[in-house]
Amino acid sequence: MTNLELGNFGQDFLWGTATASYQIEGAIAEGSRGRSIWDTFSHTPGKVINGDTGDVACDHYNRLDEDLELLADLGVAAYRFSIAWPRIQPDGTGSPNQDGIDFYSRLVDGLLERNITPVPTIYHWDLPQGLQDKGGWKVRDTSYRFADYAGIVTEALGDRITQWITLNEPWCSAWLGYAIGVHAPGEKNIADAVSATHHLLLGHGLALQKMRTLTDAQIGITLNLSVVRPASQDQADTDVARLVDGNLNRIFLDPIFKKSYPADLVEHYGGTIGEATKEDLDIIGQKIDFLGVNFYFPSTVVARQNIDKARSNGLYVDTSNEPNLVDADFGSAGVHRMGVKRTAMDWEIEAGALTELLVRVHDDYSNLPIMITENGCAAHDYVNPSGEVIDDDRVEYLESHIQALSNAIAKGVDVSGYFVWSLLDNFEWAYGYSRRFGIVWIDYETQRRIPKRSFHRYKEIIAATKEA
Ligand code: IFM
């Protein structure tokens, strides 16, 4: 265990953990819940490893009290969860379903009783299938439906919520869902992903407008951002790194903070992002109160024509599969640096990249408070004969990233919170249950919960900052 410099985290710092509805709740047919695109996708053969689905997941819907007790034991100040749209509006439109509201109301009350601040995310990927049948995020109407839904949950829970997050990782919804095709709805079309990007952002802006009429709470959006570096200083490599950075980071940050889409991306995508108008960009660029950042790993990219050169420079480039549509479109490929440790997702570990990213967002975009709304890693965990999970890799990962955060604060970035992904092992999307991100082990046969060593270490860190 490392000695961490915790002095930079004030007493109000929000230490927390995060989860998402489809990944933990299960109970897909309970409480009059409608179907989501993830029910459809996970039940489509070949889409998820082992044919896993979120039908049962961690059965959190029925084990709420036990999970609340875990949070209380951990000593977190905040808990980030997401609301399943199909529990609130089974088809994505119309009047709210009371059972769905009651479930989240019980969750919020249970948190408040334990002095834990609830931080709900309104949309974490489980779009009602009824809306997908009408075009999903490809069509503008979904942005308006999202704003209606955001209004419903704000009216229902707003008396007890002080911080809201509109969307989680719109890059994943748009690009994994509509271009790369590995997430629901599993489509593969660049133009549709471009439209989906705009409609997600517009939905965020319209929701913000609606919510401001109903609450004084703080409202933000969560983006998955990263540092994207070229494999070399060759022009072709720096060009693709700029485009990949644009597609991941700037296409979201620019409209939110500068009310415009990045010119190079607009040009690349044929002159427009969705059917964006000045009015749309004014809606998207309304003031938010904080930015949520999910950080996991930095990326290095190479121009495809330079792959052999990169290999001879000792970089690892996997070309065993066809390039995904985004790489094919940019002429790019992902690269691994030899000697850099990777997680069980094969993601490189470099905590310093978190500091670098936060300083960039601060310098290039905004000095608004930033919350790290997700950070964590999948590891090769197992229960040892004494019944413990000694996940030292995860302990090391979390410690190094908390230190990186402290370094960012020392460099002048206003960081207001940190949420470990994830409280529980859970349904890791296309990887099903084959990847474990939790600080609590889930035995999926019995639903027994076992706090891992990382849980105990995180508890110690939180307690130490309270004493500091
Ligand atoms: O599990 C996901 C989460 O739903 C969104 N952010 C990344 C996590 C790990 O892949």
Commentary on this structure:
By secondary structure, this protein is α/β, with parallel strands linked by helices. The chain has a single domain (14-295, 350-467), classed as Glycosidases (TIM Barrel). 41% of the residues lie in helices and 15% in strands. It is built from 17 helices and 14 strands. The chain has helices at residues 21-24, 37-42, 64-74, 85-88, 98-113, 129-132, 141-157, 170-178, 190-212, 235-258, 263-268, 278-284, 307-312, 325-330, 352-364, 392-410, 453-467, and strands at 14-18, 78-82, 117-123, 163-168, 218-224, 228-230, 290-294, 299-303, 315-316, 332-337, 370-375, 415-421, 440-443, 448-451. It has an eight-stranded parallel barrel with strand order 1-2-3-4-5-7-11-12, surrounded by five helices. The longest helix is centred in the middle third of the chain and has 24 residues, at 235-258. The radius of gyration is 21 Å and the shape is globular. The mean pLDDT is 98. The chain binds 5-hydroxymethyl-3,4-dihydroxypiperidine. The site of 5-hydroxymethyl-3,4-dihydroxypiperidine has 8 residues, from loops.
What features would you highlight for this structure?
17 helices, alpha/beta, eight-stranded parallel β-barrel, single chain, 41% helix, TIM Barrel, 14 strands
